[in-house]
Write a structure and sequence with these properties.
Elements: E1 2-6, E2 10-13, E3 16-19, E4 23-30, E5 34-39, E6 47-53, H1 57-61, H2 63-66, E7 71-72, E8 87-90, E9 100-109, E10 116-124, E11 129-138, E12 143-152, E13 158-171, E14 176-181, E15 189-194, E16 198-203, E17 217-221, E18 233-238, E19 244-250, E20 255-262, E21 269-271, E22 276-278, E23 282-287, H3 290-306, E24 317-319, H4 321-324, H5 330-342, E25 347-350, H6 381-391, E26 395-400, E27 404-406, H7 410-414, E28 435-437, H8 443-459, E29 463-468, H9 490-508, E30 513-516, E31 534-536, H10 543-553, E32 562-567, H11 580-587, E33 591-595, H12 603-625, E34 627-632, E35 640-646, E36 652-659, E37 681-687, E38 701-703, H13 704-710, E39 730-737
Parallel strand pairs: 24-25, 24-33, 25-26, 26-29, 29-30, 30-31, 31-32, 32-33
Antiparallel strand pairs: 1-4, 2-3, 4-5, 5-6, 6-7, 8-13, 9-10, 10-11, 11-12, 12-22, 12-23, 13-20, 13-21, 14-15, 14-17, 16-19, 17-18, 18-23, 19-20, 27-28, 34-35, 35-36, 36-39, 37-38, 37-39
Helix pairs in contact: 5-6, 8-9, 10-11
Bound molecules: (2R,3S,4R,5S)-2-(hydroxymethyl)piperidine-3,4,5-triol (DGJ).
(2R,3S,4R,5S)-2-(hydroxymethyl)piperidine-3,4,5-triol is lined by residues 321, 351-352, 364, 399, 469, 471, 517, 519-520, 536, 539.
Length: 738
């Protein structure tokens, strides 16, 4: 909806007087519960007025008088250079200023997916450079994506020094930032802090992966300390797989200024005559139902529009890594397939170690790039394994790491020019002392990487799942393909090349399930997920630490995308011994799988897993496609953590409760549920029960209202025989509407 209205003529900000146009063209980008209001009067500046709860047409008409942000919607560097800018360039003549005006506004609706794209076109008043600032609204999900196309219409080369995807002013106040930080094997840690004066920056410079440490997604709680189910919350997710930068500048104005985009450091981009540079999208959401509300919007948007096959249920799998590591052989694979099939699993994935003919992949120091089966280990090749899986009634999946090679490989020996390397420098090697990154900026390398998948899929069309790993960062800045004057394109062109390869793969193989793994959780981002069905949350499978990691990760990503596996005890990363019940109860809150050697499990353990897998099949639609309500945060250190998933019709829910510490006679909070229909009555059934006696409320019914106002009491521990007692307790309850 657009309409014209007069605005007041001047406002005072930070001591500077800004003239406002007498007329405004209001662009109202609304979704069912939110409004983004902009002013794009042709020939005038492009102004941001409001983002938040949906407001009425009459409120929009009076917005300016109420006091609104009224800042540039996409600040550029040049005039008034004191503030931060989203875009900064150097023109061919050395001029470093931009002075933009609105040229046009266009709207186009996409009937197929229900989205609408509004484009505000801007042109520089004196230089041949133009911007299309795009907003795609998703009406079902309350998400708005924004991105910018920058076009050089002149003859010379324009250098882009900074090129953010989006900018959002947020009214100064008791605003809290929730963001994720971490490290390898400790990904997705939640950090919550109030925004203070100065700059808070979150960034990545890995080059290949971008989510081991901080994440390119944040939430802002506008009403003080973040609450899960109440409070106005803005979510922002940069949809990019490479180096990013998100920063919030709290300056002397009345605003916190959020900028998000590609990290421009060492990445100046030369835009030649006629070329357009498109930034990745920044997805924004707003909810007045707290952090969980913003998560639900992101999850729905992701499943419906961004995640590969997002509305489909994922298979329950066994992955071979923690079971056998590099010790792959035909007999071992057959045994694992038989075991997972006997427990009700649906898919077996053979991890690292299956390939290499000149050099053998017996450890991590050789053979990446030589994707030929090692017939010493697998005399009947991949086909033998595919057949074996079929015999067991399950599907077969395989591990690859196609962006990489080792200096000990045929590929490197034949094509040393394919790797990322600076001129006049020795190669820098990573994992295993020999790992090298292939230069995806090079179209020949793009073909090579595409062919890794294409060859496997053509030869073995029954491959159902690919685990796509990436275990090295860019270790030295240099492309042997890019010209000398375009070396600064490497970080960006790597990811453009990556996307081109993925486009080709998905065009040909839309149905194969592909996991984004990158030394664990290095690729949990909305940049890769259009081509990937899921990601490996972390190489750390310790159930207790996973409670924390999966909690954080769930802020932005739905359970259907979060691979979560039952592994051995003691755990291989923390060496902590956690009972199978707890390990299973945690894994069942994501996309359930196993990462274990089943032959080391007792019959009783296998039996427990068989029942759990069966149960998971029943709750899978609610877990993988339902709405998340986080209830009790492990980060609040209250001794337990709890969350639940509710089906879209609110007729089914799965409630999880995990104790996070144990003390005798400790006092734990009683957890109120959320997301249920207050007027429906739900019958409670405990899942994965190990207690000798049922919970007192087993089989009983309660109204949604009662469960949300009071919750149910969780016993401190399990009522099991003495020799089975331990210091862990967890519960999963199913709530079915009568
Ligand atoms: C790192 C991954 O995160 C692991 O799951 C495993 O696939 C190894 N690489 C294999 O080398």
């Amino acid at each position: 909806m657009k309409f014209y209205k007069p605005l007041s003529t001047v406002i005072l900000m930070s001591g500077l007087v800004f003239a406002l146009p007498l007329k405004a063209e209001i662009v109202n980008l609304s979704t069912p519960s939110t409004s983004l209001v902009l002013d794009a009067e042709k020939g005038g500046p492009f102004r941001f007025l409001y983002y938040g709860d949906k407001i009425s047409a009459s409120d929009i008409a009076n917005l300016a008088s109420a006091g609104t942000a009224n800042r540039d919607a996409y600040p550029v560097y040049g005039n008034y250079p004191q503030g931060e800018a989203a875009l900064s360039v150097t023109h061919p003549d050395g001029n470093m200023t931009l002075d933009m005006e609105v040229a046009d506004i266009k709207t186009s609706a996409n009937e197929a997916d229900g989205s609408t794209v509004t484009t505000v076109s801007m042109r520089d008043k004196s230089y041949p450079i133009s911007l299309d600032i795009n907003y795609r609204t998703w009406p079902e999900e309350d998400v708005i994506e924004t991105w910018v196309d920058i076009t050089n219409n002149g003859k010379g080369t324009v250098t882009l020094n900074r090129f953010m995807s989006g900018y959002l002013p947020v009214r100064y106040g008791d605003v809290w930032l929730s963001s994720l930080y971490g490290s390898w094997a400790n990904e997705g840690r939640l950090n919550q802090e109030p925004l203070r004066h100065g700059v808070k920056m979150i960034k990545n410079k890995d080059g290949v992966r971008n989510s081991h440490t901080s994440h390119a997604e944040i939430m802002l709680s506008l009403d003080g300390k973040p609450m899960e189910n109440t409070g106005r919350t803005i979510g922002a997710a940069l949809c990019y797989s490479g180096n990013y930068k998100l920063f919030i500048d709290t300056d002397d104005s009345n605003y916190h200024h959020l900028f998000a985009g590609i990290n421009e450091e060492n990445s100046a981009y030369n835009l030649k005559k006629g070329e357009t540079f498109s930034t990745p999208a920044l997805a924004l959401t707003f909810s007045d139902e707290g952090l969980s509300g913003a998560s639900r919007n992101f999850h729905r948007w992701g499943r419906n529009h961004r995640l590969a096959n997002g509305n489909e249920l994922r298979k329950i799998l066994l992955n071979s890594w923690e079971g056998v590591y590099f010790d792959i052989n035909e007999e071992g694979m057959a045994q694992m397939m038989k075991d997972i099939a006997s427990m009700g699993g649906e898919l077996f994935v053979m991890d690292d170690g299956w390939f290499g003919d000149k050099y053998y992949r017996d450890n991590d120091s050789a053979s990446l790039g030589d994707w030929t089966v090692d017939t010493r280990k697998l005399p009947h090749g991949i086909q033998g394994l595919v057949d074996e899986a079929e015999k067991n009634g399950i599907k077969f999946g395989i591990w690859i790491e196609p962006e990489m090679t080792n200096s000990r490989s045929r590929l490197y020996e034949e094509h040393p020019e394919y790797i990322i390397k600076a001129e006049n420098r020795d190669i820098v090697e990573g994992r295993g002392g020999t790992q090298l990154v292939l230069d995806l900026a090079n179209p020949k390398v793009q073909d090579l990487v595409f062919n890794v998948v294409d060859t496997l899929m053509t030869k073995y069309p029954l491959i159902d799942y690919i685990k796509w790993d990436a275990n090295a960062p860019i270790m030295q800045h240099g492309s042997q393909y890019l010209t000398r004057d375009n070396q600064s394109h490497l970080y960006i062109d790597y990811h453009k090349g990556f996307e081109k390869v993925l486009d080709r793969i998905r065009a040909k193989y839309p149905d194969v399930t592909i996991q984004a793994c990158a030394s664990g959780g290095g690729r949990a981002n909305w940049g890769v997920l259009p081509w990937f069905d899921e990601f490996w949350v972390s190489d750390n499978t310790d159930a207790l630490q996973r409670v924390y990691m999966q909690w954080g990760t769930s802020y932005f990503f739905p359970a259907v995308a979060m691979a979560s596996h039952i592994s051995a005890a003691p755990n291989h990363q923390t060496f902590r011994t956690i009972p199978l019940k707890y390990r299973t109860d945690v894994a069942m809150s994501g996309r359930l799988g196993m990462e274990i050697q089943p032959k080391n499990m007792t019959d009783e353990e296998k039996d427990f897993c068989r029942r759990a897998i069966n149960t998971y099949k029943e709750i899978r639609p609610t877990v993988q496609q339902g709405d998340i309500y986080r209830l009790l945060s492990p980060y609040d250190n209250l001794g337990a953590a709890s969350l639940m998933y509710v089906s879209p019709r609110k007729d089914d829910a799965v409630y999880y409760w995990w104790k996070t510490e144990t003390f005798v006679n400790q006092q734990l909070p009683r957890v109120k549920m959320a997301g249920l229909d207050p007027d429906k009555t739900y019958t409670v059934t405990e899942l994965n029960r190990i207690d000798n006696t049922p919970l007192p409320y087993e089989g009983k019914s309660f109204t949604g209202r009662f469960l949300m106002d009071n919750g149910l009491e969780m016993p401190l521990d399990h009522n099991v025989d003495y020799h089975k007692r331990n210091d862990y307790a967890s519960r999963i309850l199913r709530l079915k509407a009568n």
